[in-house]
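Q: Fold this one first, please.
A: Sequence and structure below.
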Amino acid sequence: LSLMSCISVGSLSAPVIEFLEEWGLESLEENAHSSTPCTKVFVNGVWMGVHRDPTNLVKTLKKLRRKDDINAEVSVVRDIRERELRLYTDAGRVCRPLFIVENQQLLMQKVHIENLNRAKEERAEEERKKAEGIEEPEDPDDPPPPRYEYQWENLIKDGVIELLDAEEEETVMICMTPEDLENSRLQAADIDPHENDTEADPSARLKAPTNAHTWTHCEIHPSMILGVCASI
């Protein structure tokens, strides 16, 4: 397994199926004699029906997943060539986290880092007081404020980090570092990001000569691709 990867524990498929029925999923009987090209929709390998607007359906599903309205481990895979949309809610899939990118900008902001640091400092202070045996007297009229909680799960619920399994990972564009996003923004503005590079640094990381400006995700760190025992 790669570093930071996790195994999906599985969730109910009923909420996903109910959503599909509300958003225009047509049964196989209704569409048996239709000449309009439709996309087949599968849930955990079972053909549930067809849909006439898969692009908007995929966008809506991903938006709901990032808002935590559907489980973060639900996988949304669209195969344009085969005209198939495959959704997975089952257990046992290997998922790994990635930063979400929109308009070539990370959705991860300083405020999220500050929230993590604040929660970490409060936990450390609480542990220090316990270790030193310091107990603050409790006033029933003025109870102490609850400890500030902001953890990894909050980043997923806030829609700045997304869990992708191996199959969905094949349908997205992942850059290695935020620097690649900056280069893409410069290239989109017809600016050469390497025009000021005087001489090549042999120890510098090789940059991808990308002409595409359609990144959808960014690695948390390039080394997270590797496993615990992997080496270069």
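Q: Good. Now the second chain.
A: Here it is, same layout.
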Amino acid sequence: EGIRKYFGDKTCVIINCDNNSPDNTKQVFLDTPTETPKIYLSTPPGVKGKGNNFRNLFQKVVDLKAKAVVVVDADLKSITPEWIKHLGEPLFEGFSYVAPLYVRHKYDGTITNGIAYPMTRALYGRRTRQPIGGDFGFSGRLGKVYLEGKAWDEAVANFGIDIWMTTLAINQRVHICQSFMGRPKIHRTKDPGAHLGPMFRQVVGTIFSMMRYFEGFWTKIKYSRPTAIYGFGLGEVEMPPKVEVDTENLLRKFHDGLDTYDAVWRQVLSEDVHKKLMEIMGMKQTEYTFPTDLWARVLFDMAVSYRDGVVERDLMMDSLIPLYFGRTLSFVKRTRSMSIKQAEEAIEEDCMTFETTKPYLLKRWGKAGS
């Protein structure tokens, strides 16, 4: 409907990128009546991974010489025809990459809020609020860049793909905008302490590994600048569904990490950061807080140790998870009585702290003063 309504004058196709699903996805997709022609793409049997699906898409984009591409997540419940317009229209107005901007519950997207957004912003100097949003638009030209893209690895072939695409777009110096979607993102929300799985390892691992590829770019960036917002203030202000957080569970997992991973932390974190971490480990839940500047230094230390291969990388990523739970607990406590707007302002403050702590990273990375 979005294509028919807003891009009726263009030659369009709907593509389903699948992982050879056993649940009859192909048939259901192809049997759905649409005016727009459809193409079904799948990875070969046994080849999984969201990034691998995208590789198929990039190839098809190049083959079809497509001008503009809009991608939406498969688990979306709140998509409207307008989303296609919001993500597609800027691509005909001179932008090459369109990231989404939507209202999300303050505890939905904690990897974005706690890691992906502040890290991307502090490193590359662009304020892109949803760098792993899962719904975005990109130009055909950028599709070709993605197909030939460097820094492709196992993590990118899976859940690292979104942050890889955003980071590559920023480093290509193409025109980027954020498009206001008008409705909250409603999808399969999860308690941030309950389900993490390989996604965490792949997203954060991709952020760290791309720092090596683009160090010539990010080491020169001092401050961030805003990214253009397309179509702000459209539509209704609808509240996203609540996300419940089990704080006891977060605290328990944070403390459990000490027994399992302290030997790793001592290797990958600087002495001062490790010492401060031990101090907050001893706090009671009532007074517990995990300061933002400490959290930034934890991530910066990990990034340097990741580059240097100090310990096995999967083990290092796993050792970061309890610390992430500890930081998430601190964010939940701090924002518990806040509105979504106030929590958003708190995240902006956190990002500023990441930016002001960046000299610590440069020093550790070995680029200080250069």
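Q: Anything worth noting on the second one?
A: The chain has two domains: 2-230, 247-365.
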